[in-house]
Design a protein that fits this description.
The chain has 420 residues and is of the alpha+beta class. The chain has one domain. Helix content is 16%, strand content 23%. It has six helices and 17 strands. The strands form four sheets. It has a six-stranded antiparallel β-sheet. Strand 5 and strand 6 form a beta hairpin. It is globular. The chain starts with 9 loop residues before the first helix and ends with a helix. This is Domain of unknown function at the cortex 1 domain-containing protein. Pfam families: Duc1. It comes from Fragilariopsis cylindrus CCMP1102.
């Protein structure tokens, strides 16, 4: 995935998980969607008709019932009406978009479970107004998730076996416009108010804990559109930068891809490692040391992975607090963002927040009112209007326990429309 990728000590990796990673999971709710697709035999060709985007279900509000989900109790889709286009589904180290059984680029995307045979993990290529890239998603499950491949090719090892984390998402791609780093956010956005929330002490403790890890947290639970947003570069567990040979001779803004996709390779067998601050692959290496930012960047060559992550997060939280338009993402670079967390549990009958021995498993479906979790990044246009966001990427993750609440909300919406 990068020339700096190498195996990371699992203890260091998941210590960072405990201390830093939770930013991704400022969690709980959001939105709309729909899915389905007839089963088809896996066969490679370019481009498969069933992977045209949008399909007939892309913009529908309610997902297909869980019995139609090929990876039940979970399902992931592109967020409807998010202005992001899915280009195709392929193997992580391959080039061809394939017609994988049960999946559709328009309405139902694959989830890897960490037990895929070498070379058989699936990725999703996508494009938005400001970003073009690739998503790789792994979620821990109690049972095998039938993925891309034929029977007998799974269970070649378990990515999650010796890790605390239960979720890993990697987004790799390039910016088409040089956006301000401090205005690019990640987190959760919801389209309607939350349902009944867990005990108040749990909610307060959760938000306080996230605020410590993500000082620039923009959180609102009691509005019409709840949200948890934090600066993208200060939130990701790993950030790696490399030169983009394809765009090295292209000036400033990149044109649309023409739906050809970047087809960036992701080596799912190798663990990402946060580079030291002086390595070219570090996003900190390009920041001027004596600049108006007034931020000191230490040399982390001899530091642990967790310490390197902490330095980057601290630096970019300070930059985000200043709300300066500089520094910016470069259009001639490829960026890799890794997110992982261990608090959200997807494996049971209920999507739950694992609060440990004190709080136990806290069910989330009712609190989220059937709205999905998001894998999301967005660009905030200006300081004055924090509601105005441009999608960089946005995917919805549904758990089966969310569906009854989503179904009820859909019925209420239908009744309201009919009564007008």
């Amino acid at each position: 995935m990068k020339n700096v990728l190498k195996l990371v000590d699992d203890d260091d990796d998941d210590d960072a998980d405990d201390e830093n990673q939770q930013s991704w999971r400022q969690s709980i709710e959001k939105e709309i969607g729909k899915q389905h697709h007839t089963d088809q035999q896996s066969r490679p060709f370019l481009p498969p008709q069933s992977h045209e985007y949008p399909c007939k279900d892309t913009c529908k509000k309610l997902p297909q019932p869980p019995e139609h989900w090929p990876q039940r109790p979970l399902m992931i889709r592109p967020t409807p009406l998010s202005s992001m286009t899915v280009i195709g589904i392929r193997r992580a180290t391959g080039d061809d978009y394939e017609d994988f059984r049960g999946f559709c680029a328009g309405c139902i995307l694959p989830i890897n479970n960490g037990k895929e045979a070498k070379g058989e993990s699936l990725v999703v290529d996508f494009e938005s107004k400001h970003f073009i890239g690739t998503l790789f998603l792994r979620i821990k499950q109690d049972d095998d998730i039938n993925n891309t491949v034929e029977d007998g090719q799974n269970n070649q090892g378990d990515y999650f076996a010796d890790k605390k984390r239960k979720f890993q998402a990697i987004v790799k791609g390039s910016f088409k416009t040089p956006l301000s780093l401090s205005r690019c956010m990640t987190g959760q956005l919801f389209e309607r108010p939350a349902g009944p929330l867990p005990a108040r002490w749990i909610v307060k403790s959760f938000i306080k804990f996230i605020s410590i890890l993500a000082p620039q947290l923009d959180a609102s639970l009691d509005g019409n559109k709840p949200r948890f947003l934090t600066p993208l570069v200060a939130t990701a567990q790993t950030v790696i930068v490399e030169d983009d040979d394809v765009t090295e001779n292209v000036d400033c803004c990149l044109p649309p891809s023409g739906n050809g996709g970047r087809r960036l390779k992701i080596n799912t067998e190798v663990a990402l490692q946060e580079p030291s601050t002086i390595e070219p692959s570090s996003i900190l290496s390009d920041l001027p040391t004596n600049s108006s930012l007034g931020i000191n960047i230490p040399n982390t060559t001899t530091s642990s992975v967790a310490s390197r992550m902490s330095v980057r997060k601290n630096v970019f939280n300070k930059i985000a607090a200043k709300e300066n338009s500089e520094p910016r993402f470069e259009t001639k670079k490829i960026y890799t963002f890794e997110f992982f967390q261990h608090l959200l549990d997807f494996s049971g009958d209920e999507l739950a927040l694992d609060m440990g021995r004190i709080g136990g498993m806290v069910p989330l479906a009712q609190a989220m009112d059937g709205q999905p979790l998001k894998i999301l990044a967005a660009y905030r246009h200006n300081e004055g209007n924090h509601e105005e966001l441009d999608t960089l990427w946005s995917f919805d993750i549904f758990h089966e326990s969310l569906y009854p609440y989503a179904l009820e909300q859909n019925a209420n919406d239908t009744q309201e429309i009919q009564s007008r």
